[in-house]
Amino acid sequence: MNRLHAAVSLAVAALLSLHANAQTPPIGAEVLANAPADAWRSPDPARTVYLDLPAGRVVIELASDFAPAHAANISTLAHNGYWDGLSILRAQDNYVVQWGDANAGTAQARPLAPARGKLPAEFDRSAAGQPFTALSDGDIYAPQVGWSDGFPVGRDPASGRIWLAHCYGMVGAGRDAAADSSNGAELYAVIGHAPRHLDRNITLVGRVLDGMQWLATLPRGSGALGFYERPEQRLAITHLRLASEVPEAERSALQVLRTDSASFTQWIEARRNRHEDWFISPVGHVELCNVPIPVRPQP
Amino acid sequence: MNRLHAAVSLAVAALLSLHANAQTPPIGAEVLANAPADAWRSPDPARTVYLDLPAGRVVIELASDFAPAHAANISTLAHNGYWDGLSILRAQDNYVVQWGDANAGTAQARPLAPARGKLPAEFDRSAAGQPFTALSDGDIYAPQVGWSDGFPVGRDPASGRIWLAHCYGMVGAGRDAAADSSNGAELYAVIGHAPRHLDRNITLVGRVLDGMQWLATLPRGSGALGFYERPEQRLAITHLRLASEVPEAERSALQVLRTDSASFTQWIEARRNRHEDWFISPVGHVELCNVPIPVRPQP
Q1: Which of B1, B3, B140 to mutate to test the interface with A (most CBs of A within 10 A)?
Q2: How far, in Å, CA of A63 to CA of A59, rounded?
């Protein structure tokens, strides 16, 4: 295959036979290939959920440090099979895919109990004691940006607050007009350009580690905001389960590059300045959501 | 429908019955509803191409001011039916969909003549005399950003250069390692978070005005860089034609909000500060690619 980025795959192939050289500016594929075992972590199955769709599995890591009440409620709902047989309700191009109970708010709504029906807004939290790997390139939306505990974040030293950022693949809890009207039963995932204006306007609850393609390729809804107009257009959810409650043989064995590792710092630099042969200009800058957090199958 | 952004559709409905009030901060839907007829333009059919896929039509406006050689070559190729029966070769999640001749570079390649096989790189151009509507919110990748002639752009006052920016829906010409190795026969469209690191590394040739969903929902390829591994996974292109060569009754009648209009300036502000009831914080900042250029059916 020629054209756009074909040179990247050649570069990757070539690297496999090269001795890593500390004098060479880092290339992404090389950084990942050379990352030591302890730069990778296995997500905790007790804070990971599997959204199983007919086409495949979407693996979501819950951000328990940022949205503890939502993560707990989602865990309770998943434990009780709340979403099994419910459906994808909305797919808005370049924005979000959303799932939950089409009858929410009506007499036919599936009961949430023993999960809670209403939760406090978890738009941000104290930055005190929260790990933070800074990105030095600046940001349009937040005084500071970087990563904390495996998630992209914004931070404000003036207010001492930190919050999750709406990058591609982030998962949040839909709400009505009131800030405290979400409960985690209706969830959305970002499938387009980062809608960072949603940061601190809604509670983010986690991030898709694997399987984004099963959400991003869903037919777009023709109704307002991408909602499906006819019930038969909705895709039924097979299961949404806690990974810890799925038999071990059926789990998705993934590893995530630690955002507080030296390898991740090299990864940022490799994304900031592209030294692959294909690039004419190495660029010199990188934006938060253009530094995806690497995930790989467990070796 | 409750939850995420349901309030927006209510706000839109409510606005239709409200008298516009200059004292009220602008809301996006209201700006568009109130834009005068002369704030909208009809794209020139001679610089618009239709990529017709089995599911629907993708309408692409060519950026003749930024990539004149590529736009001319693409017009020649379209005129000669070059892409008809060729296929979508690649769909990489959160990145690009790419189409062209799977046999390019081989003896089986479809001939390009009378189109040219090699073109100069058109990564940027002189900013002199080129219209520019500035976005004052800053940018991570370029000294200045804004819009020119209906396209998102970066600009550098020091060098006097201006260039197209890789926002969602932008279309570019794949190339090999050499800067001047593209010819417009293999094209890609951005289907994910803006890969701005490609700016000035490759020639952008236009923007999708309508039908992004037909590209963005394509199954992702399982090969390296999202290429389809088996020929039967490729989707055949029905036609790629110049709009001016399609019978008038079969054309897509669209209008684009002029990026040099007062309405577009209001639109930027409406995207920067969200005054819809749903938003808790109006935000105060907006990034280039989070200001989509509005397109509507011709009234």
Answers
A1: B3
A2: 13
